[in-house]
Task: structure prediction
Amino acid sequence: MPKPVRTIYDLAQLAGVSAATVSRALAGHAVVNAATAERVRKLAHEHGFRPSSLARNLRTQKSGAIGVLIPLGHERTQHISDPFFMTMIGSLADELTQRGFDLMLSRVIPEQDDWLDQFIKTRRSDGLIIIGQSDQSGVLDKVANEYLPMVAWGAFIPGQTHCSVGSDNFLGGRLAMRHLIKQGSRTIAFLGNPRAIEITQRLEGARAEIAASSEDVRLIEVPTHLAHELSGEDIGSFLESCGKMPDAIFASSDMIAFTAVQALSVRGISVPGDVRVVGFDDLAIAQNMTPKLTTIRQDFATGAHQLVNCLLQRIAGKLTGSVVLNPELIVRDSG
Result:
């Protein structure tokens, strides 16, 4: 029976070359003669040999993993199973695995201001991607002064220290409000939790569009949780107590919009006949619900690509600027 090829040294003995040559050949280094490199790779394939990622990581002092953190300072009841998070995580997983990295996911409830410092000290990942800045922008800025390989998905604020990639939430708010005003809506409810920076910017965009409009438009601001089980209570309480029903709703997320449509339906209020509804995100649910949801699209695939690109440059020691993506109004049946 031939000796099994379990280590790089076994493969080197079989190929009649040094272990260093085998290592360089499998890594694709040009310093190895092309014929030798091809012979080594062919032997590795024939014997089912795979280089140990653990050994490689020990040599390079790299973990081969990227930490993906979801801080929930403003909305502690929100779950990773939320369709927004699942969409973003899926796009990131595709990008990272294509680049040869593992994804290490953590949902974080920030109890202390040093929560991010403590995570970095564990050295379990080569860099960090933060999904949603929540109310932790100050913490991200502080850490970014000393820790380079970190990028956050979400709002950009002029003067921030940390690198972010995200949609122009202010513009998205304006697009949603402009559409509703053009549709004839004059009493519009905004549903969202303004403790999150992104939600605040969407609200500010809505306000700005109303201020620029020549129409007499009233905006009702309704604090609303992101978690589905709580947003239903918030929206239900608003609908029961609002007196005159608004003729439109601008929901700060598609999931809130979905919950709003459900709450209106059980009360016999039709969408868009009685109340128009516009969401934000363009998740899969927006196209599958009834009626199909008019919403502001965030390009998650491009966002994930930009997040990973920026992070890999930062892991290599290069400073990168923030990226702001343009949102898009997607008109469907709800408003």
In short: The chain has a mean pLDDT of 89.
